[in-house]
Amino acid sequence: MAAPHNTTYGLVCRLARGNVPQVEIPQVLSTIFDSPDYKSSMQRLPEQDLRMWVERLDQIIDSTIHTEQLRRRALRSLRKTCGLRRVLPQSHYFPGRLFKTSNRPASGGTADVWRAEDDQKQTFAAKVFRAGEEEDHKIKRFYKEVTVWKRLNHLNVVPTLGAGSDIAELCAVSPWMPDGTLLQYLNKYPGANRVSIMIGVADGLSYLHSSDVVHGDMKGENILFDNKGIPRISDFGISSVTFDPISNNASTAWRGYTLRWAAPEILEAPLNSESRRPTKMSDVYAFGMVVVEIFTGKLPFPDDSDLNVQFMVTKGKRPPKPTDAPKLGLSSTAWKLVEDCWNKKRDKRPEMQHVASRLRKS
Questions:
Q1: Which of 89, 96, 338, 361 could be disulfide-bonded to 118 (CB atoms 3.0-4.6 Å)?
Q2: Is residue 293 scored above 70 in pLDDT?
Q3: Which domain of life is it from (predicted)?
Q4: Using CA atoms, how far apart are residues 6 and 11, in angstroms rounded to an integer?
Q5: CA-CA distance, 133 to 109, in Å (whole number)?
Q6: Cβ–Cβ contacts within 10 Å for residue 134, how many?
Q7: pLDDT of 5-42, one tens digit each?
Q8: Residues 175/158, Cβ–Cβ less than 8 Å
Q9: Beta strands 162-164 and 253-254: pairing type?
Q10: Helix (H, G, I), strand (E, B) or coil at 93
């Protein structure tokens, strides 16, 4: 028996099937999103209606006739639904076939990155997430994050070209970044303009925050360089590779964060507390550590063990100003801003938009 049209389930089916007049869509969506039984309605939605629902949300998000607030709510709903039901809109899939061109991937704690090509011999990075059927939370997270990543568009952010299924079921495809990670790039090009790199990373992180995206694992390993030498932030919100090939030093991924970049409130937080969740302000703190990498070519606290780093950071210790800072263009004003990013009290740290703006003027 069909669900009554005035129930959440019924409204979702009507909208998914295109049976709601255009003028009524904003009000119907608001009613659906505000409903306490929205999640249960998504769980009960038949496969055909589910597919139509995510396609309709995808269209609404890309529409120019709806308000920004409604589009953001639709994106949050799409993210939740895709995670819950392990589905994506058609626009979120990579439009072609991929083939591995490397014998071994770059491997990390939860993912492998393969070099791949399509039929036209274009090169891509295929990030394969390792998650067994029993690891339902990882699988859901993959589907949720692809819906966000697909819509990000900034010069200093690695774009996703969609989810691919040729190499593995849980695979995110992005352009291949030929010059590797931050420390690889600096090792290859020691004369690179480090101020420009710093500003580019700041701009990219500022954009993510303005798009309501918290990176959660900012570090040099997650900054890649394209064939024009432009720094591009990667691996926000999904997972990351923690091995540093330059120093041959593996920095511990501490309960979801890489310890040397983790803000003190995260290091001090009790297990399973809300304080352990990444925030924009913990990203700001980590950005300060990335600046240290940029101007030293090394990990933060390179001569200390992870255990010592955790102890020092919680006691207020921060890296000193890089020795070659003046020669490499890091001004005293910019360094003072970096120190502000490390304030122990996260509400005293500057917002990333302010950081990016100030660095451009320093």
A1: 96
A2: yes
A3: Eukaryota
A4: 6
A5: 17
A6: 8
A7: 568 999 999 999 999 999 999 999 999 999 999 999 99
A8: yes
A9: unpaired
A10: strand
